[in-house]
Structure to design on (188 residues):
């Protein structure tokens, strides 16, 4: 019998937010640096900054509204990937959406799912389905990178590595809980 409500580990949540903030700031600085060194005449890094701010606003909104964050991350990732490609097409298709934008978005989404898994280990069964779906979307983007991107080896390698690492870490962190939940759900 439980007398007190189950309260999430606030310290772990704060650590996850600090890690994500650090990753976001690092991505912003790296993109601005690459933009200034490679293509200073085209300010694409401004669009990456907007994308990261959009991701933060969406995440904070989801947390405050208490929606299923994993489904929201997956849905928003797909929407942003489509928007990135459309924006690139509209501004004259320079290839930045496939070469830079999509790999960054996929990487951030995978890392976000991993952080969600770490913070909410007991809800991993819910997040595992979204992690697998996100991995499938990631594989589709990696295939697109290999087919269309100018720097496909670098982008595909980094994005594929992050996807594989986050999926393996998520399963390793909560594999036992996931296995028990699967046994209960499917009566194996």
């Amino acid at each position: 019998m439980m007398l007190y409500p189950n309260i999430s580990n606030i310290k772990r949540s704060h650590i996850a937010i600090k890690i994500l903030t650090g990753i976001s700031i690092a991505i912003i600085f790296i993109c601005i640096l690459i933009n200034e060194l490679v293509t200073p005449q085209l300010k694409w890094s401004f669009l990456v900054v907007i994308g990261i701010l959009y991701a933060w606003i969406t995440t904070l909104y989801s947390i405050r509204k208490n929606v299923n964050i994993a489904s929201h991350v997956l849905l928003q990732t797909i929407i942003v990937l489509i928007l990135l490609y459309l924006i690139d097409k509209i501004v004259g298709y320079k290839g930045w959406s496939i070469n830079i934008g999509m790999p960054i978005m996929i990487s951030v989404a995978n890392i976000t799912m991993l952080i969600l898994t770490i913070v909410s280990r007991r809800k991993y069964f819910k997040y595992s389905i979204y992690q697998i779906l996100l991995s499938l979307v990631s594989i589709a983007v990696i295939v697109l990178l290999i087919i269309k991107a100018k720097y496909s080896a670098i982008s595909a390698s980094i994005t594929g590595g992050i996807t594989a690492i986050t999926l393996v870490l998520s399963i390793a962190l909560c594999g036992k809980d996931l296995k028990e939940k699967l046994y209960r759900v499917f009566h194996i």
About this structure: Residues 152-186 form the longest helix (35 residues). The chain has a mean pLDDT of 78.
